[in-house]
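Reopening this one. Same input as before:
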Amino acid sequence: MKAYHLNSHADAGRLVRADLSKPEPASGEVRIRVEAVSLNYRDLLILDRADQNKLNGRVPLSDGAGIVDATGADVTQWQVGDRVAASFFRDWVSGPFKSSYVPSSLGGNTMDGMLAEYVVLPANALVPVPPHLSSVEAATLPCAGVTAFHGLIARGGMGKGDTLLVQGTGGVALFGLQFAAALGARAIVISSSNEKLARAKALGGSILINYRETPDWDVALMKATDGAGASHILELGGPGTYDRSLRSVASGGKIVQIGVLTGFGPKPDLARLQWENADIIGVTVGSIEHFATMNSLLTEHAIHPIVDRVYGFDEVPEAYAHLRTGSHFGKIVVQL
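Same output, byte for byte:
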């Protein structure tokens, strides 16, 4: 089968095409014929770490969807031909997060990912693809979709009448926007692009702020909400946005902390959280149960993930390069 490996000695962006033996499922495992995978910001961080020679031979990417191709002994919940997607954390089935789940993240420090024609995983690490979605769409769900659902809905309790601040128009941001629209929450979107803001408006954004034109976007947000602020904030920027997020959160509100897109830098002053009785919810993706529950929401509201661009298997380096530009609107997918 064909796959990609990380390799610190590679000429083309530390990614190398590899020909591997097709894996065989053991008892309790399922083999998936992967049809599509998607990229996340995490994948850039991992690619950049490949220079340290610690990830040579790793199959990258956490997110993928495909068709059950073979099953091992004792697998009863899946049949050949079933459409499935893999969970980001192989071992986090349900319940609270445990640090012991970290090594089971696909495409990371210790475990191969989804950028291969065939992948073998435990049967309980998969969820059915919503019937209204293609494999290209389903491949966008495991990280970005589950992250937004876990933070905003499962733990954040976002619903009708709430106000969500979305930073940017990447994968997590747009899932948050779509969830808000489906649940009857008002969505505020900030972006540096008026074109992207117009597209976000079509998805349900109601207050649109260009942060290049309005650097004090927190002031604009408070004015637009009559001083109330946002009940839910998808904090995707990191040090470059955190202080303004703190100044934008409503009394009793929730900041869902996800991103480090502007880097690791000075720590913000968290005093306002206490004054406003607000919370920070730290989120790293979610469980298999979160994934399945999110899929029910997608099906109920006929939500289709936003796909920016689809690349072919031979174009994986170009897909990474496009992600690095930050110019995408939604998710970047590779179709196998």
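So the earlier flakiness isn't reproducible anymore. For the record, The longest strand covers residues 29-38.
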